[in-house]
Each structure stands twice: as structure tokens, then as C-alpha cells.
Amino acid sequence: MTQTLLLGGVEAGGTKFVCGVADGDGRILEQVRIATTTPDETLAAVDAFFAGTAAAHGPLAALGVGSFGPLSLRPDAPDYGAITTTPKPGWSGANLLSHLRRTADTPTVLTTDVNGSAVGERLFGSGRGLDSFCYVTVGTGVGVGVMIDGRPHGGANHPEAGHIRTPRAEGDTAFPGACPFHGDCLEGLASGSAMQMRWGAPAETLPQDHPAWAMAAHYVASLCANLTYVLRPQRIIIGGGVMQPHLYDKVRRALIQQLGGYDASVRGLDMDDYIAAPSAGASAGLYGALALAYREATGDWPTDWMI
Fold first, then answer.
1. Alpha helical stretches, state H, 12-63
2. Is residue 35 classed as helix, strand or coil in its secondary structure?
3. Domains in the chain with CATH codes
4. Backbone angles phi, psi at 117, to 5 degrees
5. Which of 72, 80, 87, 209 has the most beta carbons within 10 angstroms of its beta carbon?
6. Tell me: the pLDDT tens digits for 199-227?
7. What are the tens digits of pLDDT across the range 97-147?
8. What is the DSSP letter of 219?
9. DSSP string of 139-197?
10. CA 62 to chain CA mean position, Å
């Protein structure tokens, strides 16, 4: 692909928007971080960035966006492209897709932030060479991106596996849960927000022998057990601020216990390989968005980008 192909990418998070422009070889030409404040203020800054890059480098061939949600991603929905019932103040109903299509004046593709990161991990990280895997982030919330046959899964809309119901961990009966919609769904029990509410301190500040970690491992393993039995992915990649390095082995042990030895294909899983940390780096979300733009412009995924 010639370097003259220009691609735009947006990793739209609840804390910050990361915007970038790259050439057809995946080289970042310009990049900016924009604080997520109000929709009007944030999107105005996004528009200004892409207007500036268009003046400096020329028009975009396509724009890819991976956004926090929930999102309306069914093309025939009246609010297609909008953020829906988000707890992020002021953002419910903000239609990212229609706004960016109009202001960037280019073909634009929108998916969830976790699907964008899953694309980045498939091309450049722990999902490389896999056709089917799940990308999980356990941070302020819990999100799950699903790759099937090498592309993000959507169906009627995107998965919301972070809000499944799971059995309570031993000793965790009184905590009401932190999810404003469901209370004690998985996100309400295992997210960084839940850990802060339950223990009175951010997860990353808790010592390794704190009982919070065994409880967190139970809940993350419960999610992985459900994903295993429903989707049978080749790998589950888990990132996010709650997933401190010492938690991975706890999740693996808890998952083995919860699977209970049922089914030969599950008994044969190599847990060190099956439960993995992301490895595409902090820019996986942005590069995933740029790869979506590349696919929108060319019909193919990039195969030779170096990040």
C-alpha cells in the first residue's frame, strides 16, 4: 500500500480521546490526546485536529473509531452510531458516527473500544494468528470484544458480556454492587469502580495478599468460564487497570476450578497460553481504529504494519 493513503483513527474513551492520522504503511503522522469532557467540547477538539491534519497532509481515505459505550451499531436503528445508556454524564444520545462522518467528510466505521483493541491485538499482539479470541478489559468498567473468523463480532448489536450475572464469591454477600443499571452484575462486582467502592482504595494500591484479589480472580474467572462454554475462543486476552501482573495466575487457577474438568477439550487447555495479557502496547486501541479505517478504504486488513 502506498504511503499516500491517509487513514484516521479515534480511540474514544471515557477519560480521553486519542486521535491519530497514519499513512498506508501504518506510520503515525500526527497524534493527539483530548480530555473527555462534554460532547460539544470534546468533539470540537476532535474536529479541529482532523481539520488541521487535512490541511497539512490531505484528506483521509477513511476514519476508524473505537468508542466507549454502549453503542447503537445496528444499521437500521434510528439512533445508529450513537452512545446509548452510558453512565458517563452528558454522553447518552451523542451520535459519534453521524457527527464524524459529517465533519471528517470521509467513510467512517464505528465499533466498541474493546473491539478496536481486539483488532489491534489480532494484528500486532497476543491475538496474532488467531481467528477466534476474546479481548477483555477490567478497568473502570468491564468490556469484552469478540473476534470470530478474524473480524469483530457484532450480530444484532455488540456483546455486553461485562454485565452478565455471576455467582457471588465466598464472603461477598453484603456488597450491593457498583453498576448503576444492574447493581451486582459482573461489572458491578469486579470492575475498578466496584473494587474502589468495596475496599475504599484503588485496586492498584492494594497489596498482593489483600483478600480483594482472590475475590477479583473469582469474578474474572467466572466471566472466562462463560466465554469458554459459549464461544470456545482460542484465547482470552485480559487487560485493564485491575489486571495487575500477579492476578493472572489467580484467574487461571480459579478458572480451572470453575470449569470442573468438564469436557475433554476444556480439560486439555494450556491455561498459561489460554489466559493471556495483551501485548500490542498502549496504542493497540488507536492502531485497531486505524486498521479498521484501512479495511474500510481497501477491503483488507493491513498485514505488514510495524508498531
1. 39-57
2. strand
3. 6-117+281-298 (3.30.420.40), 128-276 (3.30.420.40)
4. -65, -35
5. 72
6. 999 999 999 999 999 999 999 999 999 99
7. 999 999 999 999 999 999 999 999 999 999 999 999 999 999 888 999 999
8. H
9. SSSEEEEEEETTEE--TTS---GGG---PPPTT--S---SBTTTBSSHHHHHSHHHHHH
10. 21
